[in-house]
Design a protein that fits this description.
CATH topology of the largest domain: Glutaconate Coenzyme A-transferase
CATH superfamily of the largest domain: Glutaconate Coenzyme A-transferase
CATH class of the largest domain: Alpha Beta
Number of strands: 15
Number of helices: 6
Strand content: 15-25%
Helix content: 10-25%
CATH architecture of the largest domain: 3-Layer(aba) Sandwich
Largest sheet: 8 strands, parallel
Number of domains: 2
Oligomer: single chain
Structural class: alpha/beta
Strand order of the largest sheet: 1-15-12-9-2-3-4-5
Mean pLDDT: 98
């Protein structure tokens, strides 16, 4: 096999002090929970790795203890560059207490940054973030006093202002899929979305880093539909088969629901109505913007 088959704890040993680590997922969807647990266990047992830079686009956590909250330990992280902080209170606390350098960058821009890292480009040029707290004239996305380095430059092109988000190498990508075959090809048919898995894998590989993927099962080569492969095996260094179902849930509230993958449709009258609260009001207002057939 062109890749290693490891436990989550063994995979954690591939991470070195000072590495830049990217994770992917959306809340609980696609998040490699077992890999995060393995990294946390290694740090608690050995005090290493230390001083990691954590990079993530969408929020990945349950606002309590799961997801990236496993990495909320002083000393484990030195810098955090995230697109959404609300679901990671343990990491938030490190930022509030000035125990890590902390940046909040636009989620969509960070997705583009992964592609630009993969392509070897020096940065991502966009108007997104101008005249907000992301603008270097208004803080540059820095969240506390400890955070000093400028990750964003203001540039002018043809008389217009743009922001240039500087890229950086990635040493480790922690990702998740459904099945991996004997050549390391990874599918995601049990996931409700694919987020930036391929871009993150390419960014790490083209930085000279390692790609570690958590899956449900390893299957025989030739049995996967190639049209379903989302991470080609050429990018994969290690596969970890989840040891517990609760470490590989489709969402943090659902083990597996085929309607989330589009395999079935639930009749609307079978869906329990939301309780009337602020979330329902927001959803109703958002629904007013959706046109028929959109």
């Amino acid at each position: 096999m062109p890749f290693q088959i490891l436990t989550a704890r063994e995979a954690a040993d591939l991470v070195s002090d000072g590495d830049t680590v990217v994770t992917d997922g959306f809340i609980g969807s696609c998040f490699p929970e077992e890999l995060a647990i393995g990294l946390e266990e290694r740090f608690i047992e050995t005090g290493t790795p230390r001083d990691l830079t954590l990079v993530y686009c969408a929020g990945q956590g349950d606002a309590k203890s799961r997801g990236l909250n496993h990495l909320g330990h002083e000393g484990l992280l030195r810098r955090v560059i995230g697109g959404h902080w609300n679901l990671v209170p343990r990491v938030q606390q490190l930022a509030v207490e000035n125990k890590v350098e902390a940046y909040n960058l636009p989620q969509g821009v960070m997705c583009h940054m992964l592609r630009d890292i993969a392509a070897g480009r020096p940065g991502t040029l966009t108007h997104v973030g101008l005249k907000t707290f992301i603008d270097p004239r208004l803080g540059g996305g820095k969240l506390n006093d400890r955070t000093k380095d400028d990750l964003i430059d203001l540039m002018q092109i043809n008389g217009k202002d743009y922001l240039f988000y500087k890229t950086f190498p990635i040493q480790i990508a922690l990702l998740r899929g459904t099945y991996a075959d004997e050549n390391g090809n990874v599918t995601m048919q049990h996931e409700g979305l694919t987020v930036s898995m391929l871009s993150a894998a390419q960014a790490a590989r083209n930085s000279g880093g390692k790609v570690i993927v958590q899956v449900e099962q390893i299957v025989k080569s030739g049995t996967l539909d190639p049209r379903l492969v989302k991470i080609p095996g050429i990018y994969v260094d290690a596969i970890v088969v989840a040891s517990k179902p609760e470490h590989h849930m489709q969402t943090f509230g659902t083990q597996y629901n085929p309607s989330f993958t589009g395999d079935i449709n639930i009749p609307l009258h079978r869906v329990a109505p939301m309780k009337f609260d602020e979330r329902k009001i927001i959803c109703r207002r958002a629904a007013m913007e959706i046109t028929k057939g959109a």
